[in-house]
Amino acid sequence: MQDEMAQLLTDLRGAKDFEAAAAATLRRLQAVAQEAVASSRYAARGRVLRGIVHLRPGEAYRSLAALEVGAAEITDASVGTPFFTSATAWRAVVEHRCAVSIDVNVGTVQPHAPNAPVTGDPSLAGFNSHESRQRFLGRHATHVCVLPLRTPGGDIEGMISLEADCLAAMGQDFVWLEAGDRLQLLADVAAPYLARLPQRPVARPEVDEFLPVVGRSMAELLPILRVFALQDETILISGATGAGKSRLARWCHERSNRRGKPFETLDLVTVPEDLQMAELFGWKKGAFTGAVRDAPGSVARAEGGTLFIDEIDKLSLKAQAGLLHLLESRSYRPLGEGTGERQADVRFIIGTNADLHAEVRAGRFREDLYYRVNVLPVRMPALQERQDEIPLWAQYMVNRRHRERSPDGHARLMKEAERLLVGSPWPGNLRQLDNIVRRAYTLAMVEHADASGELVLHEKHVARALDYEQAPGARPLPEALRAAAQAFVAEARRRNAPLDLDLADAFRGMVLGLAIRQVGRDEGFKLLGRESLVKNRNHHKALKRELEKVDSLYKALGEEGSPFSDLLSEVEAV
């Protein structure tokens, strides 16, 4: 065992990315599992098939890597290969916080812990869904060992599943319990590397009408989403309001086997609780006061296609029970319909900006429904975490609005206007950015009555549009500072090398630069309590020092220049 660990550690230390670490880990685990099969009574009838690393910190998937036994390289998720994710396996690992063995044919889940009960029965109640079991069997996997990826702090940030084919062991112990300690020890050694190493750079993805802008963070997420899109299991998209969850849901639909079929959206924020069941399932004439005719619900309208249910945390407990029945049985009954149920051929995508697990603990969301919708979870990054996308989205929004007004005209943002947008906080995400761009576009149009030529949005137009955001009730300064700190830490975690804390000093320069942009150089210093520097004529030197810090931050992030590079050039020329 020491030799196995030493070899794995050597391979992991040499790994430059998640994919290399996953390949090294899976090869070692497969070797141990194959050795256990070869020395068991199933030697002639059992075989290890594959291993899959599921990295899902904070519940949401970040990376997937599969290695077939005998393969030289891991399977590339970006080509749409049939990766398999299992809500049954994940639920068991999280609940028991240890490795588990799954007998697919019998439908039992056995934790690798002393005196832990075996769950499931011949009716396959141990499985999260019928589809989950069928997908295992479709891959010829009769027995699965699931190992938690535990960080040194004890958190579970993913799992490794090993799949084997051995019909002879149906209803009996396979080799997983015997080899479990060795397998788990190797998984524990690999966990910190798998959780912290960056993914391999992905090729710049193609953009389209459904996702016209893709930055670095989204480019890393899209390979997983392509895989998820091709499955019929439920996708759960979490993320802040306005971040683009509905657009991402439509993108998944267009890359699924259901493209060309209906795509229906049900935003529960707009539906009163007493009408949620009716909106979901439809109703018959006379089912309730005001039901003057039959009406199909969202499920019926989405038949054959995809139903995106947004803000699922707003669903009442009564409606949750109805949705749970629909997800379990794929059948439903419209309100007021007497007997019998209708079958639903619908793929579900769920959106939320809430922590559903916390909602479960608070008793506001059913635990069984949570595990039904948390099958393929992904997290949509907030716009503040996708700053490289801000200028691209702004230009896209300007072009779209200008084409509506003047199909032959052209519109663009000046670099200074883009920099001002990048340097602004976006608590409202893409929705807020669209409002700002709409406002700035209108201000530019006021000065440019002839829309037949090129329309240019300058920094002053964006600045004035942003000023309207500073209304009563705007985000308090401590909250905004906390958001900036979160963005700094998020960037540090995404990088391959540490992000020097001293670069956070750039905030002073940004504040000073924005003040000068808005009220002028001397007045900007006075506004921020540095009038003495102006009186002593030392403010040029102070401004240069602060703006150099901003420039250093942008250089460290690989950006071409800071939003205040022109101010810095002016000061340096003095």
UniProtKB/TrEMBL annotation:
<feature type="domain" description="Sigma-54 factor interaction">
    <location>
        <begin position="211"/>
        <end position="442"/>
    </location>
</feature>
<dbReference type="GO" id="GO:0006355">
    <property type="term" value="P:regulation of DNA-templated transcription"/>
</dbReference>
<dbReference type="Pfam" id="PF25601">
    <property type="entry name" value="AAA_lid_14"/>
</dbReference>
<dbReference type="InterPro" id="IPR027417">
    <property type="entry name" value="P-loop_NTPase"/>
</dbReference>
<dbReference type="InterPro" id="IPR025944">
    <property type="entry name" value="Sigma_54_int_dom_CS"/>
</dbReference>
<dbReference type="GO" id="GO:0005524">
    <property type="term" value="F:ATP binding"/>
</dbReference>
<keyword id="KW-0067">ATP-binding</keyword>
<keyword id="KW-0238">DNA-binding</keyword>
<dbReference type="Pfam" id="PF00158">
    <property type="entry name" value="Sigma54_activat"/>
</dbReference>
<protein>
    <submittedName>
        <fullName>Sigma-54 interaction domain-containing protein</fullName>
    </submittedName>
</protein>
<keyword id="KW-0547">Nucleotide-binding</keyword>
<dbReference type="InterPro" id="IPR003593">
    <property type="entry name" value="AAA+_ATPase"/>
</dbReference>
<dbReference type="InterPro" id="IPR025943">
    <property type="entry name" value="Sigma_54_int_dom_ATP-bd_2"/>
</dbReference>
<dbReference type="GO" id="GO:0003677">
    <property type="term" value="F:DNA binding"/>
</dbReference>
<keyword id="KW-0805">Transcription regulation</keyword>
<dbReference type="InterPro" id="IPR002078">
    <property type="entry name" value="Sigma_54_int"/>
</dbReference>
<dbReference type="InterPro" id="IPR058031">
    <property type="entry name" value="AAA_lid_NorR"/>
</dbReference>
<keyword id="KW-0804">Transcription</keyword>
